[in-house]
């Protein structure tokens, strides 16, 4: 029994270790995913960027819907300063049909997204990053030829009411990174819907 418990504990440790994704300070891999305009996009397409705001998002989640205008504002504020937003829909559309590519195009058009809205069709990007929620934020900063994770978590401290936000975690993190400083905090808890995985 003890041997079985030890074995299961080891399996659990290994599985959770691989499932964790990136931590602050890790070098993040680029991706090449289909955008709503029918073209493929990667971070390498932005040679002048100082970093990226990678947001794991979707169409249907009420948390995402509550944050969409703020996502647009963040892009408009920080893309000119070298930190564009890239949104990625990681949900499986069989499990959640509202998150289909067709509906992504419709939503992007309705909201006039100024940033790419990409489809993680084979669901390989979000686990590599360690995203578990929508929205889930990964702020990346250029470090030579690398893209290093600088902040992970939530956009701010109030998804329900933008006018009552007291802590702009993501915006403050971008400003800190722009000034050569470490964000404080470097991580927060992502609040949102679970990512819908293939069954």
What characteristics describe this protein?
199 residues, alpha+beta, Glutaredoxin, two-stranded antiparallel ribbon, 5 helices, globular, disordered N terminus
Beta-strand residue percentage: 15-25%
- Count helical runs: 5
Helix content: 25-40%
Strand order of the largest sheet: 2-1-5-4-3-7-8
The total number of structural domains is 1
Calculate the terminal CA-CA distance, rounded to whole Å.
32 Å
Largest sheet: 7 strands, mixed
Structural class: alpha+beta
Describe the structure.
The chain is α+β, with helices and mostly antiparallel strands and 199 residues long. The chain has a single domain (22-194), classed as 3-Layer(aba) Sandwich (Glutaredoxin). It has five helices and nine strands; from the N terminus they run H-E-E-E-H-E-H-E-H-E-E-E-H-E. The strands form two sheets. It has a seven-stranded mixed β-sheet with strand order 2-1-5-4-3-7-8, covered by helices on one side. A two-stranded antiparallel sheet has the order 6-9. Strand 3 (51-57), helix 2 and strand 4 (85-89) form a beta-alpha-beta unit. The longest helix has 18 residues, at 2-19. The model is unreliable at 1-19 (pLDDT under 50).
């Amino acid at each position: 029994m003890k041997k079985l418990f030890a074995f299961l504990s080891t399996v659990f440790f290994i599985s959770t270790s691989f499932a964790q994704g990136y931590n602050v300070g890790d070098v993040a891999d680029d991706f090449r995913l289909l955008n709503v305009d029918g073209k493929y996009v990667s971070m390498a397409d932005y040679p002048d960027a100082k970093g990226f705001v990678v947001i794991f998002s979707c169409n249907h989640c009420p948390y995402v819907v509550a944050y969409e205008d703020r996502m647009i504002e963040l892009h408009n504020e920080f893309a000119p300063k070298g930190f564009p937003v890239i949104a990625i829909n990681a949900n499986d559309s069989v499990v959640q049909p509202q998150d289909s590519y067709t509906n992504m195009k419709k939503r992007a058009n309705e909201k006039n997204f100024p940033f790419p809205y990409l489809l993680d069709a084979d669901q390989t990007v979000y686990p590599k990053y360690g995203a578990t929620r929508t929205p889930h934020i990964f702020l990346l900063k250029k470090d030579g030829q690398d893209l290093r994770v600088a902040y992970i978590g939530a956009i701010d401290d109030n998804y329900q009411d933008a006018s009552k936000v007291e802590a702009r975690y993501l915006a403050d993190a971008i400003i800190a990174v722009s000034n050569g400083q470490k964000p404080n905090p470097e991580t927060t808890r992502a609040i949102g819907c679970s990512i819908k995985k293939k069954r």
